[in-house]
Amino acid sequence: MAVVATERTQSHPGRTGSVRHRPRRVRPIRLRRVGRLTYLSLTAVVFFSAFPLYWSVVVASLDNSAMGRVPPPLLPGGHLVENIQRVFTTVPFGLALINSLVVAATITVSVVLTSTLTGFAFAKLRFRGRSGLYLAVIATMMVPTQLGIIPLYLLMVKLGLTGTLYAVIAPSLVSAFGVFFMTQYLAQAVPTELLEAGRVDGCTTWGLFWHVILPIARPAAAVLGMLTFMNAWNDFFWPLVVLTPENPTVQVALSGIASGYVTDYALTLTGTALATVPLVVVFALLGRHIIRGIMQGAIKG
Amino acid sequence: MRTWLHRLDVKASPYAYVTPFFVVFAALGAFPLAYTAWVSLHRWSLLASDHEFTGLANYRALLADGFFWNALANTASIWVLSTVPQLVFALLLAHILNNRLRGETFWRTGILLPNITSVVAVAVIFGQLFGRDYGLVNWVLSLFGAGYVDWQAGTASSQIAISAMVIWRWTGYNALIYLAAMQAVPHSLHEAAMLDGASSLQRLVKITIPAIRPTIIFTVIVSTIGGMQLLAEPLVFGTGGLTGGSDRQFQTLSLYLYEVGFGRFDFGYASATAWIMFLIIVLASAVNYLVVRRIRSA
Predict the structure, then answer these.
(1) What residues of A are in contact with residue B14 (Cβ under 8 Å)?
(2) CA dist., res. A46 & res. A63, Å (int)
(3) Which residues in chain A have their CB less than 8 angstroms from residue B120's CB?
(4) Do residues B35 and B105 both lie within one domain?
(5) What pTM did the predictor assign?
(6) Pair B69, B199 in one domain
(7) Residue B30 pLDDT > 80
(8) Is B292 domain-assigned?
């Protein structure tokens, strides 16, 4: 088997040419054929992963009286449009969607920029206190900043920012994980000789960042951007604390619909589907990059 | 002049690059965390303008507070109920994905799908699935002749429902983390074991798990921190109630913090709760560090 694998590797010399592709390792074990049982169990897992989301769409298209049927309806009904209209009249859902988009986009741009800048300095520049500061970043990565939620709230009250998007955005403008992620990436992706050559040619540090680092950082920045956007879109605790039901993000609006003595399932699950579907579409298109990012982060983490 | 500028650029500019991050982080990340300790030493409410210094009174009250211990116990039991099955499933799943598969990307994308769903959405959907009257779970159980369960009412049943949300959302993510670690395990080990006739399960238990032990411990710690943050699940499952069920049967620490801080606006007491949660996380991370170091040196 090993011979077969070696031949495969050698027959694709072009594959190992580019810098980003790791040379194909010889993996005889992966050539073993897997049985049907493997695919069957994977199918079952993916079914269970997707079913609750499918179910939210089914309930979103029913009226509430259909919910009590036995057996439960497993196919979508015809009330989707009506339910969507009800969501938009019950809570300011349009505003919530726009708010979430503004919040997530601002945070994403800021996190990617600051992380790339800081990561560049940590990975490729020499300065006093570098290792100490980097250690501080790593140490804080494990602590959820929401434990500081009380002083943060007091601060926003003092600044008169409660109820505004500024209050939601500000604490998330930078991310320790982002800095860690970009530092790790740039340390291995940017050859130091390239920077030295730039220096010899009279490039300033900013010139190096602009002409050398940024182009190389692009794939990692894209992955970090997607992860950051999803986290910001899904964030709940802090927006719930600092925003009002009149000016919510999607998650806050959603929790608002879901509260109450009698739960209107058709309504709440329509809201859920509306809040989730955009993300699922983005994920379906870009998922493999996100997966690569998570797995790369895992190896170094 | 030019050499002077160059020297300034090389010596000083690195600080300019890290400054934006550290300024924002110090002001809105580190400072609030530290200030929480200060607030926790006071009687501090939103409306009163003076904040009486009370020393450790909040902590003493907290340690005598039945609701706090109840929330801590619930957090612990939900953590066990969710973490153990989650990590076992994730290990098995990663082991399967570590084969040569057709449609690799499809499977990976499929199992990560729950993770991009927001916690609120997960809680809403599972709240419906675990509903007493129209819930799908009860309907499936009734097919097997079981009676209808009022999931929200019981301690065990409500915590199982909440754990199911956590398991659903995080199993695929952890499987990918394990898969990344498994791909770094030398294949010669597996090859040798196969020549000796080891089964797939034997290879998982005897080779893979020992080799990726640091990663497993890492995921245990991450899930500890995640468990400390469980808020949306019990909040939405209890249809917006801050107590986590009528008997507080599924109130977590985060939810208790929220109830004290933003239901009663008792900021001093809530800060003491936050600080205790912080200590638990530090303790868990320290244990993690020591265990990993022992494994590395062993």
Answers:
(1) 121, 125-127, 130, 205
(2) 28
(3) 234, 236, 251, 254-255, 258, 272, 275
(4) no
(5) 0.86
(6) yes
(7) yes
(8) yes
CB-CB neighbors (< 8 A) of B116 in chain A: 230, 234, 279-280, 283, 290
User: In this structure, are A60 and A100 located in the same domain?
Assistant: no
Residues A128 and A246 in one domain: yes
Average pLDDT, chain B: 89
B136 and B234 within one domain: yes
Task: Say if residue B32 is in the same domain as residue B166.
Answer: no
Give me the mean pLDDT over the B9-25 stretch.
89
DSSP annotation string for B87-130 = HHHHHHHHHHHTS--TTHHHHHHHHHHHHHS-HHHHHHHHHHHT
DSSP per residue over A192-210, as a string?
Answer: HHHHHHHHHTT--HHHHII
The last residue of a domain, from among A29, A60, A80? A80
Domain housing B270 = 64-297
Give percent of chain A above pLDDT 70: 85
Nearest to B236 among A30, A130, A258 (CB): A258
Our CA-based measurement puts residue B68 at a distance from the nearest CA of chain A, in whole angstroms, of 16
